[in-house]
Each structure stands twice: as structure tokens, then as C-alpha cells.
Amino acid sequence: MPTMNMLQAINNALDIAMAEDDKVLCFGEDVGIFGGVFRATSHLQEKYGRSRCFNTPLVEQGIIGFANGLAAQGSVPVAEIQFADYIFPAFDQIVNETAKFRYRSGDLFNVGGLTIRAPYGGGISGGLYHSQSPEAYFAHTPGLKVVVPRNPYQAKGLLLGAIRDPDPVLFFEPKRLYRASTGEVPEEDYQLPIGEAEVTREGTDVTVLGWGAQMEVIDRAVELAEAENISCEVIDLRSILPWDQDSVVESVLKTGRLVITHEAPLTGGFAGEIAAAVQERCFLYLEAPIARVTGMDTPFPLTLEKEYLADHLKVYEAIKASVAF
Amino acid sequence: MPTMNMLQAINNALDIAMAEDDKVLCFGEDVGIFGGVFRATSHLQEKYGRSRCFNTPLVEQGIIGFANGLAAQGSVPVAEIQFADYIFPAFDQIVNETAKFRYRSGDLFNVGGLTIRAPYGGGISGGLYHSQSPEAYFAHTPGLKVVVPRNPYQAKGLLLGAIRDPDPVLFFEPKRLYRASTGEVPEEDYQLPIGEAEVTREGTDVTVLGWGAQMEVIDRAVELAEAENISCEVIDLRSILPWDQDSVVESVLKTGRLVITHEAPLTGGFAGEIAAAVQERCFLYLEAPIARVTGMDTPFPLTLEKEYLADHLKVYEAIKASVAF
Amino acid sequence: MTKTQDIHSPEFLRGDEFSIPTFRLLKQDGSLYEGAQAPELPRELALRIYHSMVATRVLDERMLAAQRQGRLSFYMQCIGEEAAVIGATAALDDADMIMAQYREQGALVYRGFSYDEFMNQLFGNELDYGKGRQMPIHYGSRKLHYMTISSPLATQIPQAAGYAYGQKLADEALCTLCFFGEGAASEGDFHAALNMAAVHEAPVIFFCRNNGYAISTPSIEQFAADGVAPRAFGYRMHVIRVDGNDILAVLAATREARRIAVEQNKPVLIEAMSYRLAAHSSSDDPSGYRSRKEEEAWREKDPILRMQHWLIDQGWWNDDEEKALQESLRREVLETMKRAEKRPPPPLESLVSDVYADVTPALQQQLDQLKRHVRQYPDAYPKGVRSLDPDVAAGHDAADHNADQGGK
Amino acid sequence: MTKTQDIHSPEFLRGDEFSIPTFRLLKQDGSLYEGAQAPELPRELALRIYHSMVATRVLDERMLAAQRQGRLSFYMQCIGEEAAVIGATAALDDADMIMAQYREQGALVYRGFSYDEFMNQLFGNELDYGKGRQMPIHYGSRKLHYMTISSPLATQIPQAAGYAYGQKLADEALCTLCFFGEGAASEGDFHAALNMAAVHEAPVIFFCRNNGYAISTPSIEQFAADGVAPRAFGYRMHVIRVDGNDILAVLAATREARRIAVEQNKPVLIEAMSYRLAAHSSSDDPSGYRSRKEEEAWREKDPILRMQHWLIDQGWWNDDEEKALQESLRREVLETMKRAEKRPPPPLESLVSDVYADVTPALQQQLDQLKRHVRQYPDAYPKGVRSLDPDVAAGHDAADHNADQGGK
Ligand SMILES: Cc1ncc(C[n+]2csc(CCOP(=O)(O)OP(=O)(O)O)c2C)c(N)n1
Ligand SMILES: Cc1ncc(C[n+]2csc(CCOP(=O)(O)OP(=O)(O)O)c2C)c(N)n1
Ligand SMILES: [Mg+2]
Ligand SMILES: [Mg+2]
Where does residue D142 rank: exposed (0-12), middle (13-18), buried (19+ CB within 10 A)? Predict the structure, then answer.
């Protein structure tokens, strides 16, 4: 099996989707001949022509508006937003249009073919506007699906799943891992399920939950914890919306403890939703308060980024505190 | 003391603010001679002239962009978004600009003078796009303040507080109550504090928390509950961001139970944040899971709106279930 | 890079240099302007257009009255703009996609949307294709290639560009026509749409109904330029301004626009100059922001009367036919309205379907919980409880109608 | 309502009719075009402009090198566009507000932002006015009326309209100049801004740097029209296109634009035609999307050399002066860079200040928690721990500098 980094895995998934179905289109700012500023769409224009892989003008609301129209028409657009921080000009098209297209028309029309890809997250010295993790904004929006992969294998399988999913999917890519994360990825076509969490490590003392680049952070924290004989069950949520409550609840019923971590600020972050739902379903089984390890309630900083981030040491401390409660 | 409905109270607050400080400007779609589609800005153009109260072109991102610039310059803009459902085209200007203006400039510049008013909420047969309650989208955004009044007295005092607050404030007005809610409102200038919840009724068995139009729903539910001898403590959160954790926690430490209700969909709604924070701080004192009574995880419907809404009967059932747990 | 002429003194242009003329063919009395030539318009098509205009007007008048009587929560009229909307639609292939704003019910009438179909949407009953989820006037029809209306303004404009681009790739020789108001054209989405359509050569017709107002805001507070048409220069886009009350001019202009769009894969902008004769909606009262006199001046330019005069001149129409048409339409509106009012609401399940292609487990749980709740308080939720009672649900005839009206 | 001429045949305009010329004064050899007249430009001002252009170039070259050496995380150069940026700034009153995109450091140089101030921002140290929160090149200066740069494109354009409207109400006889790229002009905010400024008569100059590219996207994939200038017609806005490499033309055009803005309260659009000679940023490599040949052709139009030739012709400049200037600037850049690099980072408290006017209790708690954590793992957070150690914090000289550099 070949080794790929996450960008290669994503590029490979797009290639497979475009080869298979000529209704699949890839576009966005600098996506054409340049292959995107991160090169996720490299060579796709060469292979599939300018009408199927192209640069757009610099206008996110236009990109998603155009993509909504294409999807309604029956095409399968994969639109790239250059950085998740720049998805907000398209917020109306996504939240008021994409999300509500099928519902408001009573299923006469839908934009289920749409996938929106965007690199998200910190750890790359990006400051306020190249570091944000906006998944929670979209997770409050019925009608959308929100997916975040943790490594190249997941990225390829989930992206193919997203493109073929009958609902519109926001696919947030942890850009810190684009080149840093490598692994074996099958050449051939495969899909991973949307809406299902994955238990990546079994344990008994505490459940540690995250998604995307935080999974690497969790792994490092768990290593420290296991060295102290704390047995951790690790869950990659993978889909933020809809999210796999049953898997999380099942784990917490077993461990009695839950630590959730994400990069986005605490207040209104998706960990709040998870904590609220889990305390409701696991109330009598919880042995410690559900802990959240997140970004601070500030815009994303630069020079003190390391201090700001929800890193492995903070997660480790939260695990210890939970077990010691 | 004169009796006012909520629109009159808001109009009165704007009038006082404009009379006091000629840097205060009111603008938005149809805000000028027409006085806004709900007439919240009636007569202000007559009184203060077209340069201080005016119609804008139909472009929410422009309204808020323009308002951000005015605020940075030292003016005190009070921008109206005709319906909260139409605030999303301005999402980028609010979330990436308004919220981060002071932080990113190291306090060289700020848009603290800005207030954004928008009618929100359901119960008026408005369907998908005249009923939304988007407070949670903004509550995940450090740098913003988010305020929701429950009655005319609160509306006037909180709006004057918002306009004079040194930070940008989103002021969501429960449009269902615009004319339906009336009460005594002092003619003169007064302010209510931003960031402080209010205990509107004391009780011992369960804390029931909400904001805006839900407070009326809560009152009806509590009436039913009190008839069953359930003693309810009722809290109006008033400020969603920053929110008054201490007051809520204090109450829950006393009652051991919490029911939170909002109109917005469940998943990612602000009740999740409150529940997550409260379970952390009150873990050993909770006698039942924190309950959330909210809109369903769908776009806002029309014909079946009554069924959809988090009404008094649903809140009442949640109170009973919490007490019976 | 741009290659233009050089100048050596700083001369500013202002746009006034380039005034865009208005294309007109038909005078109010039904005769043609000197030098004007009517587009090809066989009698049958002319009558289809005229019938649609009248049917739209009758519907509008009746439904506003119904709203006033409290039978309907909300309504929006097309009055005064029937020629713009129906003329544009008649210039299209019936399979072209239409993406409208909300004041274009005439397009649906022209394509054959029945009064029953209108009424089901207006009353949000169980036969409404939109399943009673949107406010009145948010029609849609898949079989008639009419995209379901969405309230947020201008969002359909970039969508139309994308839809048309997809049509081009599918090589269907079809185009998309996108209606919007001069107010909506202020939104950022307008700029995004026109630019993207021009760059990517999408076969889309942007049809701006400049009716002078956006709710209370007159167009001079909407933009400083002479209308919306000059914006086309910013995108190097074909553009024409047309008298929106002139059915022949609208038809001719839109036909030519369609030819450019479909044959050359180029977007076109049409600005139809008209006037919103009615209030913005049933919630609005225009007396606060404009004069009766202004309204009267425009009432004299009524597009339906103008076409009627022309038809009579052609010998294709007479007063008796007019009377008969009006009467039969009025009767039909009343009958269909009564039918629709009586129909039950959509079932409780419709609250959670279509959020996703399949109902998610979490939504199913929310529905089940709601059902339990409604059963507990049946009197509090008369609409919801109905669909819970299997006898009631089975007893009526709605299911039969569903099959042939679904459109999808 | 719009009153225009009538036509009776459906003629579509395409905008090609209205080609906007380019205003030029100075040839590359330093001589004026025939018939051209230089704007009033006393020697002292000319040299201030020229020094600023050179100082910007030197800064750009040195800092890109520093980035390549790994001393700096990121950099963006203005190379090739110095005349556009500095010429525009020199036409303003120094108290006019400038709201820039990110490639306009020349404007700051011209207004007197010191190399120290640049460096503190670039290295995000404790003296950075922005407190080390934004990426390099996000400068701002309150005392120099230069709005802090924000990465999201085009957001400053409607803000500039609002800022200028506030200036008008304050009756200050000042205006706002807003810089943006031809790429950013595709954003919805651009349309919003120009329309609002035109309708509300804000004294704002929209200055578009059309440098041919938005990262890899050439302007022909950005818009179908001949540049950005024709969009002005859509707003009935004064517009001029100017050779952006021609310092005299930019100066003359912007002065006239300022006069229109301040005296008539009318917005103006200027499109400066130039070329981004360098890569988009230090993260970019243009060889994948454009040719050396194209770059070389533009390198021959270097705006600094062009002005230098003119200055030499005036007898105001010579090679020795050039050499001395270059050397002293290079030395200064290196010295200030070394100073800035060595300065400590902002204190941990800066993570939570300025989110709101006052630190909220919740943020104070988050900070306290972070402090405890950093104390527990001091080696993991070398930057953060520094400000926790009172001896270290008191020992250095930063506090002294803070007072006179704060700008606010
Ligand atoms: C994004 C958005 N903002 C505001 C509104 C509220 N609104 C509904 S119609 C309307 C005026 C539209 O005017 P115009 O586009 O000229 O169309 P007309 O009503 O004249 O046909 C406004 C402001 C909306 N529906 N969507
Ligand atoms: C809203 C937004 N979208 C995308 C980006 C990423 N981005 C940064 S610069 C740039 C190109 C800008 O081109 P242009 O406006 O022509 O300015 P230039 O770099 O040529 O000076 C892009 C796409 C951004 N910063 N903001
Ligand atoms: Mg209109
Ligand atoms: Mg550029």
C-alpha cells in the first residue's frame, strides 16, 4: 500500500471522484492550474480540463452560491474555500441556502451533491485569520453535515463518502497535518461512513474525545496518561453533524468519565453540545464532571499560539483531574 | 409611569440616545422615513435629519461594513438588520471584523460604539426565514456581546446600555413581543447592565432559565408547575455573551436542578454551553440531568409551528421530569 | 493585461456619458411606435400570454382580499409587472430553468401551475409541494422547472449562474433565467453572480425587475446610477433596458437574450423598467412613503390593458371574451381556495423529513418525543394531533392526489 | 425614475463601447509624454516620496531574505507597486485615513512609520502595537491614521465608506483612502461599499491596485471586463484609470480625486495599472503560473527607476546620493531587525486583553488557569513563562519604549 500525506490522499480522492463521474467539478480560488494554495487539487485541471476544474473569482459567497446552483442542477460540485477563516462571506449561502434547500422545497430540489472543502485549524503560526476552527458555527445548522478527518487514510475515505453523500457536506481539513501526517492509503476507491465515530483505542478509566488534528494531541496526552496507569478510551468523532451520540454514550457508560477537546474557543464550541447531551444520557454513571479542553475565549493569537492551544499537556492534565475527581 | 409596548420602548431608547449624543446614527433597510418595517425607528429621521437616520441600500454586509467603519471612526452606529434571518450575509463583517477589531489592533482601533439591532424568533407564522433565533452563532465569537430583552422595560434599559457599552453589542429583539408585550416604562433615561442575568422569581426545587420571548413561555410553564407545588426559580439570562455564569451556578447550587429553554434548534444551541458549564461547576449538587427544551433540529417550519416550538407545555413537562428524576 | 488608449491629463469619467436607452415597441393604446416591429407572435401564443397575465391579476386580487378577510396569513402581488414576468417567461423554452425572487407568480401561471397548486402552497396544506414549511407565495415546481422560492434576497442569483453553468456542461441547449428586484441587486450576491457568470460564460439571463421600490426604499436611495443596467459594463456583459410594461418589447428582448445565452454561452442582463402598483406585501401600506399621484400615473401604464388593446387591434380578442375569461377565472380561484382551505395540514412527520435525504436517528427521536407530547396534550396541538390519529389520516382523499401532483 | 432615450429595436450593449483610457505622465526614461504636465511637486516633497519608495524596496528585499533565512515566518512585498501606493498617499492630507489591504507598507513608510515599528510588528514582540497577535505585515498606526490591516479581503472597503461618512458628519474636510487589489474587488463587500458610498455621498477614494494577479489567478480569470474601472458606471461614480508605475500620474490623479471627495463629498474610484513583480508572498512561487518573460517585461517598467530618472533630470538627485541612501537604509534595516528579534514576546496577559474593553471575569479565569499550567510546565512554554517571572519582566528595557511608541 502506498504511503501518502494528507494532501496526497485528498488529491487522490478528488481524482478518483472526477474520473468516476464527470458530473464532479472542483473549483475555488487558485484551484486551477496552480492546484490550490496547498496543492490539494494539483493536476486535476490538466487531467479533467478547465471546465471541470477551475479558478473562480475571489468571492466566497459566489463560489458557494454557484456551487449550490450546480448541485441543484444535478452536478456534483466540490468547492474549495481557501481557508476556513474565509468561509464566513459564504455563511448565508451555506446556512440559509445549502442547509435548507431540500426542506423548504419539500424535496422537490436539493443540493445534496455539494461538498465544501476548507483547511482549518491552528498550529501553523497563522494568527487570527489562518487558524480558526469554525465547525461549531455549522453544527448548529440542521441540514448540513460536517466532517473532519484525522489522517490521510481517513481523509480519502471520508472525502469520497462526503462527495457521494446525498446531503451537503462541509469537509474541514486539518491543515497542520496536510504534510505532517503520513500513512498507508490504498490506491483504490473506498469510502468511510459519514455520521459514525470511531473508537481508536479502547480503555476503561476515561473517555477522551476529539476530532481532526486534536486526535494527534490526544494520542500524545494518552501516552502520558497510560504511563501513569490511566486506561484511556479514545474516540475520533469524525462527523460533527450529525454526531454519533450512541457511540460516545456507550463509551462513557463504561468509563464514567469524559474529556472532550477541540481547538475552537470554549464558549459555544461543540464540546458544549456533547457535554450537554452526554450528561443527560449518562447522568447516573458519571464519576466526574465532563471536562472540556479547548482554545481560549479570544480570537486566535500568534506569538503566544503555543500557550493558547489546547495541547497534549492540557489534555493530559484534564485526564488526570477527571480520574482524580 | 407611561405604558409602552416593546417597539415604543425601543423607539424611545433610540430617541434618547440620539438626542443625547449627535454621534449616534440609526440606519438600515427602510429605517428612514418609513421608520423600519416594524416601526422601531419611527420619527427619528424627522427629528434628527436624514444624515443621522437613513435608509441603506439592500445589502446587509454593506450595512455592517459601513457601521464598522463608522464605529472605528468614533461614531456610534445603531444598525438595524430587518430580520435576524437576514444577518448572515453580514456574518463575515460581524464575526471576522466587528468581533476582532480591538484585539487584532492591540487596542489601537475598536468598534465598541457599534450596536446591531435585529428582530428574532418565531411564533408569528414566519416560516424558515422570519423566525430564526441565531444567538448561538454569535455566542461562539469572542469579542461580541449578545443581549436579548424580555419586555419593554428591559428593552429600553438594555438597549441604552448596549449603545453606550464600550464593546460591540448584538441586540436581538423578540419580535413576537413587539406589540404583544406592554408594561410600565419610565420616560427618562436609564440603563440596565450588560452581562448580568436576573432572577425574576425565587424558588427552591428547580431553576428554569431562558431569555427573550421564552421568558413568557417559562412564566406560563412555571404557573402550571407551581400549581403542582413545584417551587421554581426563574432566571432571565439577558446577556448571552458574556453570560452570567455565577448567577446561574448560584441558583443551581441551591435548587439542584436546571431546565434551560430556547427557541433555536437543540444541537449547538446555547443551552448546550450552559449545561456543559453548569454540570462542571455543580457536579456534586445536581439531582437530575440538566434538561434542554428547544426548537427541533430542523429548519423552522410554518404550518406546524405550534408543534415545533418549545412552548410552555414542553417546558412544564421538563420541569416535572426534572423534579421527578 | 488591459490595453487601452492613453491620456495625459487627469480626466475623470462619471458614467453619465453612457446613458442606456429603453427599448419599447408598444404604446399604451396598443399601437406600435414608429419604426417598431412586433416580434413573431402567433395568435395562440399571444392568447396564452394574455390569459396568463389576466389569470395572475385575478389570483392576486382575490388572494389579497382573502388575506384581508383573515383567511390567509400573507400575500404578495405582481400587479403592474405581469408583462415583465410573463413576457420574459414566454421567450424561454419551457424547459429552461427559472429562478425567481417572489413576485413572479405569472411565470408559473404561464407554465401551467394550476390554481389548485397555488392554493395548496398558499394554505400550506398537506398537498403543498413544500409541505407547509414556507410562508405563502414560496412556490416551486420541479416539473415546470421553477425553483422553489427562498426568502433571503439575491441568493438565487449566483445559484442561477451555477445552474446555467451545469446546463452548459450537460450540453442541453437550455438556459436559466433569474428574476430579481432592483433592491436585491444591491446585495453582494448580485456582484458575485454577474462576475462569475461572465468569467465562466454561463448561459444565464439576469432579469432585473426595476419596479422603483424595495419595500419603502425608492430606487434613488438604492443606487446613485441610472438604474441597474450600467453595471453590466463592469462585467463586459450584454445588456438591454426594456419597458417592462410592454409585453412585445420584453418578449423580443428576452428572446434575443436567450439566443445570446444559449448560442454563445454568454450571460445577459435585462433591466425591465416597471412599477410595483400594489403594496410591497399584504403587511405593507405604501401611503407612508409614496403618493397616490405617482401610483395613478403608473396605473395608466397598465401592462395588461396595453396588451389587451393590441390584441383587440389584431382582431384576436373582444370584450365578451374578456368578460367570460374574468368570470371563469374568478370562479375558479374561489373554488380552489375553498378546496385548499379545507385540506388538512401536512402530517407531523413532515417536521423532520427532508432535513436530510434520510431522517437521522436523532431526528426520529425528536419526532417520537413530539408525538408522545402531542398525544398527551391533543387539544393544544389540533393540527399535529390529526396526523397521529390513523382513522382520520386514512379517511381523507389526500393520498390519492399526491401521486400525480408531486412534480418530482 | 430613470429617464432615458427610447429605442425601438432590441440593441444590446456590451460595454466594449466604453473603453476607459489610462492616464500617464511620465515615460520610463524620466521624460514627460508630449502634452503632459507634471503636477506641482516641490523638491522636498519629491525627495520625501522617492526616499519612501526606496526605503520600502530596501525593507522588502531585506525582509524577504530574512524570511528565507528562517528569521521571519512570513513576508509580503510591495515590489513594483511603490509608485501606486506612495503616490496615492502623498496626494493625501497626512490626517486622512488610510485603510489598506496588506501590500501598502509604502504608505506607512511615507507617513513616517519607523523601521523599528515595522520590525516590532514583523517579529510580534512586546513592542508590537498589535501585541504579537497578527501575522507579519499586519501593521497599524493610530497616530499615522493607518488602520490596522485585517486578513479577510475586501472587508475594509465598506468600512472605508462608513469611516468617510463619519468624517463628513464630523465636518473635518478629511477623507478616507481605501486600497485593495483587483482580486479583492470581486468580493461582495466591494459592490456593497461602492454602492453605499455613492448613495450616501461619502468622501472616500477607492484605490484599486490592479497588479494582474490574485495569488495565481490572472486578472482575465478574475473578471471578463477591461479591468475594474468600468464598474464605476454602475454606481455613477467618478473614475480614472492611471498608470500605477507613474508616480506623477498617480499623484495628480489622486490629488484630483481627493478634491472631488472632500469638496463635493463624492466617492471616487481609481484603478492603478501595475504588476506584482514579486511572488504573492513568501509562501508563494509564481513560476507555476506565469512566465519569467512576462515578469521581465514589467521589471523594465520599474516605478522607482522611472522616478529616479525624472529626479536626476530635475537635477535633484545623483548616483552618490543614491548609493548613500541605499547603504544607510540597508544598515538601518539590519540594525532594527536585530533589535526587534531580541525583544521578548508580549506578556501572557496579552492573550486575554482587548477581546473586550475590559477583561471579563471568565477570561481572567482562563488566564489564571493558563498561568498555573505554564508554571507547571515552564519548559514547554518558553515564551509564556517569561512574563510570569517578575525578575525577567522587570529587568529589560521594554517598558520604557512602550510609552512613546504606543501610537494611541
Ligand atoms: C437578505 C434579505 N434582506 C432583507 C429582506 C427583507 N425584504 C424582503 S423584500 C425586500 C425588498 C426587495 O425589493 P426588490 O428587490 O426591489 O423587489 P420588489 O419587492 O420591489 O419586487 C426586503 C428588504 C430579505 N428578504 N432578504
Ligand atoms: C476573504 C478572503 N478570501 C481569500 C483570502 C486569501 N487570499 C489572500 S491574498 C489573496 C489574493 C488577493 O489578490 P489581490 O486582491 O489582487 O491583491 P494582491 O495580492 O494582488 O495585491 C487571496 C485569495 C483572503 N485573505 N480573504
Ligand atoms: Mg423593487
Ligand atoms: Mg492583485
Answer: middle
CB atoms within 10 A of CB D38: 16
Boundary residue ending a domain (D322, D342, D362): D342
User: Nearest by CB to A303, which of D345, D352, D373?
Assistant: D345
pLDDT in tens, A222-266: 999 999 999 999 999 999 999 999 999 999 999 999 999 999 999
Ligand 2 centre to CA of D215 (Å) is 7
Q: Does A253 touch chain B (CB under 8 A)?
A: no
Task: Record the cell numbers describing residue B30, joined without a space.
Answer: 427602510
Residues C65 and C172 in one domain: yes
ipTM of the complex: 0.97
Verify that C335 and C255 share a domain, yes or no: yes
pTM, to two decimals? 0.97
How confident is the model over C136-149, as a mean pLDDT? 98
Range of the domain at C370: 348-406
C320, C342, C364 - which closes a domain: C342
Can you give the pLDDT at residue C3? 62
Write the DSSP string, D350-385. Answer: GGTTTSSSS--HHHHHHHHHHHHHHHHSGGG-HHHH
Q: What is the pLDDT of residue C386?
A: 87
At C95, give phi and psi (nearest 5°): -95, -5
Nearest listed ligand to the Cα of residue C216: 1
C-alpha pair distances (Å), A19 with each of A48, A52, A152, B294, D182:
8, 11, 20, 45, 34
On whether residue C13 sits in a domain, the answer given is no
* C256 lies in the same domain as C385: no
Q: Say yes or no: D281 and D372 in one domain.
A: no
> Could you report the per-residue pLDDT of D70-122, keeping only the tens digit for each?
999 999 999 999 999 999 999 999 999 999 999 999 999 999 999 999 999 99
Ligand 2, CB within 6 Å, residue ranges = A 29, 58, 60, 82, 86, 89; D 103, 151-153, 181-184, 209, 211, 213-215, 276, 280
Do D353 and D337 share a domain, yes or no?
no
Query: Looking at the 3D structure of chain D, how many domains does it have?
Result: 2
How far is CA C221 from each of CA B33, D2, D76, D199, rounded to the nearest angstrom? 11, 13, 40, 6
Is B130 one of the annotated active-site residues of the chain? yes
Strand arrangement of the beta sheet that strand B53-55 belongs to: B53-55, B24-28, B76-80, B115-120, B169-174, B145-147, B239-241
User: Is residue C16 assigned to a domain?
Assistant: no
- In chain B, whose CA is at the least distance from the CA of D124? B106
Interchain contact, A96 vs B129, CB within 8 Å? yes
The stretch B276-300 carries a mean pLDDT of: 98
* 3-state SS assignment for residue C399: helix
| Residue D390 pLDDT grade (very low, low, confident, very high; cuts 50, 70, 90) | low
D163 with D73, same domain: the answer is yes
Rounded Cα distance, A71 and A111, in Å: 5
Distance C73 CA to ligand 3 centre (A): 22
| Residue-wise pLDDT tens digits, C342-353 | 999 999 999 999
Asked whether residue D283 falls in the same domain as residue D360, the answer is no
Distance between CA C385 and CA C381 in Å, rounded?
Answer: 6
In a domain, C5, yes or no: no
- DSSP run (H or E) holding A232: strand A232-236
Phi and psi at D92, nearest 5°, equal: -90, 165
Residues 328-347 of C with CB under 8 A from B: 345-346
pLDDT in tens, B8-60: 999 999 999 999 999 999 999 999 999 999 999 999 999 999 999 999 999 99
CATH number, domain of C241, equals 3.40.50.970
- Same domain flag for C356 and C221: no
The predicted structure's pLDDT at residue C402? 40
Dist. CA C64–CA C68, nearest whole Å: 6
Residues B2/B187, Cβ–Cβ less than 8 Å: yes
- Is residue D112 assigned to a domain? yes
What pLDDT is attached to residue D14? 83
